[in-house]
Write a structure and sequence with these properties.
Elements: E1 2-6, E2 13-18, E3 23-26, E4 31-35, E5 37-43, H1 48-60, E6 67-73, E7 78-82, E8 90-95, E9 101-103, E10 108-111, E11 116-121, E12 134-139, E13 145-150, E14 155-160, E15 166-169, E16 173-177, E17 180-186, H2 190-195, E18 200-206, E19 208-213, H3 217-224
Antiparallel strand pairs: 1-2, 2-7, 3-6, 3-10, 4-7, 5-6, 8-13, 9-12, 9-16, 10-13, 11-12, 14-19, 15-18, 16-19, 17-18
Amino acid sequence: MQEHVEFNPAYTLLTLALAPGESVKSEPGAMVCQSGVEMTTGLSGGGGIGGFFKSMAKSMLGGESFFLNTFTAGPAGGWVSLAPSIPGDISWFDVTPGQNLFIQGGSFLACTPNVETDTQFQGLKGAFSGESMFFIRAFTGGQTGRVYYCSFGAIKEIPIQPGQTVTVDTGHVVAFTGGVNYQIGKVGGMKSLVFGGEGLVMHFSGQGSVWIQTRNVPSLANSIIPFLPNRSN
């Protein structure tokens, strides 16, 4: 599979060139255009009764779709172009066996067929983070697989080294690797929390990487709401 990225980081379009018989799974609605591929739709959690409940958990708890589309190239090969629903960037990460990639709800875009996804409960601290209480966990039990994720705005990778703590606003977290731990906290005291314009944050430590987005949807919504017309009684 070969990737071709255009128009990044604001309106990124990802085109995947597939060899004959090669496949990629993507979120419903992510396809922009395609040629030489066949699309099928299945449960996002896999087949069988177990896959049904995994799909339901991802949809209800993780903010992802109940179904995934699979694009498979024909005998002559083919290609498919994918894009997220909001303006932003696309990046990817290779997940090795025994490794986890945690993705914030709404940021999963696509993956190779050997990658599995489920929901990971982040504990009661998720109730105070301002984000979903569940992350999407991407992993593989066999060969290395590739995960494609998207953002609102541009994506930046921040390496986390042992003994280091990096603080990120909860609305700007896109994904992080399994070797990274986090705690929910705030910047400054209660006065800063209420009047400083900064909400709750995530303090990351351990060893691995965190990917952040340069914009966040709640801030955009707060900027637009004052200009919306009032609903008449």
